Amino acid sequence: MANDQRLLGFVAAMTRLVQATSDEDALIAGATPLMRDLVTHDDWLPDAMAASHPQYYQQHLLYGDPLDRFSLVSFVWGPGQKTPVHDHTVWGIIGMLRGAENGQRFAPDAQGHWKPTGERATLQPGDLDIVSPARGDVHEVSNAIDDSVSISIHLYGGNIGRVARHAYVPGTSTVKTFVSGYSNLLAPNLWPRPAA
Ligand code: FE2
């Protein structure tokens, strides 16, 4: 497959998948090999979508389904950058493309305070991780490399930049609602929508 066809091929296959089913397990099962194939080839991501920022990790929207059934985002981690503890409220598949990232799951203790749970996992290029409300949805993600940029590709079962979701203050029961948006502001699915 030509390099410039790889992302198009992924989007076409995902579009067929979301047309065929809305079952979460079937979508994750169908999307997993597509994501694995996408991130085992580091020859397709446009440079503009690989751009880092000195202060903030970047969320470049690569494609948004016009019916909001899925979205694909490149996360670009500068040295030392990490997310807050957060959830997604929709299913997601994370695929490591370049560099490495750490993921730490969180769960509430008996007092409802959010604490790390399980071992911290480090993704290497080609590795995948899955999040969803049914499978575990709360984590903190960070660049695993101290002195260079890392990039992971995230597929979500919705328009993730427009989803109201939650950030958690570790060691407390404090939960805040947020909408992440995207770092790039000119993507087609950010165009104004007619009222439903
Ligand atoms: Fe996440």
Overview of the molecule:
- It contains 2 helices and 11 strands.
- The protein has a single domain, classed as Jelly Rolls (Sandwich).
- A hairpin with a 5-residue loop joins strand 5 and strand 6.
- The strands form 3 sheets. Strands 1-2-9-4-7 form a 5-stranded antiparallel sheet, covered by helices on one side. Strands 3-10-11 form a 3-stranded antiparallel sheet, with no helix packed on it. Strands 6-5-8 form a 3-stranded antiparallel sheet, with no helix packed on it.
- With 196 residues, it is an alpha+beta fold.
- The mean pLDDT is 93.
- Helix content is 17%, strand content 33%.
- The radius of gyration is 16 Å and the shape is globular.
- The chain starts with a helix and ends in an 18-residue tail after the last strand.
- The chain binds fe (ii) ion.
- Fe (ii) ion binds next to strand 8.
Give the topology.
Layout: H1 3-20, H2 24-39, E1 58-64, E2 71-77, E3 85-86, E4 92-98, E5 101-108, E6 114-123, E7 128-131, E8 139-143, E9 150-156, E10 165-168, E11 175-178
Antiparallel strand pairs: 1-2, 2-9, 3-10, 4-7, 4-9, 5-6, 5-8, 10-11
The protein binds fe (ii) ion (FE2).
In short:
It contains 2 helices and 11 strands, in the order ααβββββββββββ. The protein has helices spanning 3-20, 24-39, and strands at residues 58-64, 71-77, 85-86, 92-98, 101-108, 114-123, 128-131, 139-143, 150-156, 165-168, 175-178.
Which terms summarize this structure?
11 strands, 17% helix, alpha+beta, Jelly Rolls, 3-stranded antiparallel sheet, 196 residues, 2 helices, 5-stranded antiparallel sheet, globular, binds fe (ii) ion
